[in-house]
Write a structure and sequence with these properties.
globular; 2 helices; single chain; alpha+beta
């Protein structure tokens, strides 16, 4: 379990599942957001990313869109890190969720 402080509020992640280079899912506790995840699918020379968020309070949908944008920006930074020759094992993958 770990607590992330982000620009959209604190996120208490209690569990996560990953399939390397395919998908990730984070489960939250004591949050309006239950889970967030993404699926990565190569399509030719491009990569298609499907981002999803499981939540109960529809009034907060705009806030969840901001969370999604942060995750997509984090994935882009990770890809740029790899493209620049970085070792995936050296990247702090929590940054996908929190780094501005």
């Amino acid at each position: 379990m770990f607590l992330l402080n982000s620009s959209v509020g604190d996120i208490n992640i209690v569990s996560w599942e990953t399939v390397e280079s395919e998908s990730a899912t984070w489960t939250m506790d004591h949050s309006d957001m239950n889970k967030i995840g993404y699926i990565i699918k190569p399509v030719g020379d491009l990569v298609e990313v499907t981002l999803w968020i499981d939540f109960d309070n529809e009034k907060l949908e705009k806030s969840y869109n901001k969370v999604g944008e942060l995750v997509l920006k984090g994935l882009k930074r990770y890809i740029e890190f790899i493209e620049e020759g970085g070792d995936p094992n050296d990247y702090d993958k929590k940054e996908v969720l929190v780094r501005p």
